[in-house]
Design brief:
- About 55% of the residues lie in helices and about 10% in strands.
- It has about 475 residues and is of the alpha/beta class.
- Strand 6, helix 10 and strand 7 form a beta-alpha-beta unit.
- The longest helix has 22 residues.
- The chain starts with a helix and ends with a helix.
């Protein structure tokens, strides 16, 4: 077996030929370079280099399986591990790839029928006026909690309308940065594709407009606004769509029509599609695209966010005070920023410098309520076992998924006052008998397996580090 840079170059060419005309594959495959090929008694590893973090996540999520399949075809008797590393190499090919993305998008637009190139007047409520221009990708602090959601949103903003990413559905608890990503995508598309008509709206407003249009018999006008005069649809708080049957029907047909026309849809919700209460056909349509979760950031990322916010607003605050605020602010990024603003306001009103003692004084009540959430326990377990939170909430019965899921249920029951029904609901709607069986399974393993008990003890220690108790 001889795998080197020459092999990799030929390999990429073969992959592109087999895939047929696929500009997206070319744009992301071309910048990936051969780094090294290691073979020992235990493992055979092909290491490939990608130019930046964004390519790293895209390659892992979208290209790794394709490359693995082709390698198995070439070497059916050899198990080859694939790993990507960030080389930070920015070459001419990479620059051309990004240029090609933009050029191809422009060419596609120019070839549309004349009616689609008409510049419609942008109405209030659907226009760019709703987009917060301060919320961009450059002002979003990326952490482990949001790496995939950030990479997916950026990719969509670079390549609006790509089938595999349409719709893009971002979900997570309130205050985690979903709205920031929606605005960042809208701002990026507005800047790079100025001819696209962007409709940014909350689902609650969509619902109210739809109901009003039904009452006034103005559905034709309503549908023209969202189906005909929209190239990019961005909807926040999609969970509100589950409130009305007639609105769901309209929402489903709108989504269908826009996707058929290759219009990009970006959605955000505080829960997964199956938990919104949608009809099956609407739910499956949302699940057919790309789903990305975003959760509360870990301590290091919370500190980084605070440091960025403090620098941006010119707040002088020592490192120990930053760490204190980050440690006790674990419900949401909104809470994190709110506590920083509270400290700033108090210091200005009292004419005091910000230090650790002042922070403890202002946030004393807040500190006494420090706890941990279901989402944080799920995150801790997922990171410990190197799986994604979407996997732990899924219906997969694979052992590498099932055992961490059972452990997470056990720890939630141990640390939180939650019913069996509540726990099951937080794992994609599992019933209470599944939770009971999981708790019994973990109890049994704790008695039999010392190594398993050590893992549980490590996880419990991590939870204690979060709660501080």
């Amino acid at each position: 077996m001889q795998i080197d840079s020459s092999f990799w170059s030929d390999f990429k060419s073969t992959m592109k030929i087999k895939s047929g005309p696929n500009k997206l594959l070319e744009n992301y495959l071309d910048p990936i370079d051969f780094v090294k090929f290691d073979k020992d008694e235990q493992n055979v590893t092909l290491t490939l280099g990608v130019p930046n973090r964004f390519f790293y996540f895209y390659a892992n999520e979208n290209l790794k399986d394709k490359i693995d399949l082709e390698l198995k075809t070439a070497y059916p008797d050899q198990e080859i591990n694939i790993q990507f590393i960030i080389t930070e190499k920015v070459n001419q090919d990479y620059n051309l790839s990004l240029q090609n993305i933009l050029q191809n998008s422009e060419q596609i637009f120019q070839n549309l029928p004349a009616i689609q190139k008409t510049v419609f007047p942008i109405e209030r409520g659907q226009s760019n006026e709703n987009i917060n221009t301060d919320l961009t990708f450059s002002t979003f602090v990326v952490g482990k909690n949001s790496e995939f959601a950030h990479a997916a949103t950026y990719n969509v903003a670079q390549n609006p309308g790509i089938e595999d990413y349409n719709p893009l559905f971002i979900y997570g608890p309130s205050g985690m940065g979903k709205t920031h990503l929606l605005n960042a995508a809208a701002n990026h598309i507005k800047e790079n594709f100025p001819h696209y008509r962007i409709t940014y709206i909350s689902a609650e407003r969509f619902l109210n407009e739809c109901v009003a249009a039904l009452r006034r018999h103005e559905m034709d006008k309503f549908r023209q606004k969202y189906r005909e005069n929209t190239d990019i649809l961005v909807v926040d708080d999609v969970q509100y769509i589950g409130r009305g049957q007639a609105v769901q029907e309209e929402f489903f047909h709108m989504i269908n029509m826009l996707i058929e026309k290759k219009k990009q849809i970006i959605l955000a919700s505080d829960r997964m599609p199956k938990d919104i209460g949608l009809e099956d056909r609407a739910r499956t349509r949302l699940e057919r695209g790309l789903i990305a979760d975003i959760i509360m950031p870990d301590l290091e990322t919370r500190i980084a966010i605070l440091r960025y916010k403090a620098e941006k607003t010119q707040i002088k605050i020592p490192e120990d005070a930053l760490q204190y605020i980050a440690r006790i602010s674990k419900k949401s990024i909104r809470e994190l920023e709110g506590n920083l603003k509270k400290i700033k306001m108090f210091s200005e009103l009292q004419g005091l410098s910000i230090n650790l003692d002042l922070c403890k004084k202002v946030l004393a009540h807040h500190e006494s309520t420090v706890t941990i959430s279901i989402e944080e326990i799920q995150r801790i377990v997922s990171e410990f076992y190197k799986i994604r939170i979407t996997d732990i909430k899924s219906s997969s019965r694979a052992k590498p998924i099932v055992v961490p899921r059972q452990i997470a249920m056990y720890l939630i029951k141990k640390f939180l006052d939650k019913s069996l029904v509540e726990i099951g609901k937080s794992f994609g709607g599992k019933d209470h008998t599944t939770v009971i069986n999981s708790l019994n399974k973990i109890e049994g393993l704790l008695q039999k397996d010392p190594q398993f008990k050590n893992d549980i003890d490590d996880l419990i220690t991590q939870i204690h580090n979060v709660t501080g108790v």
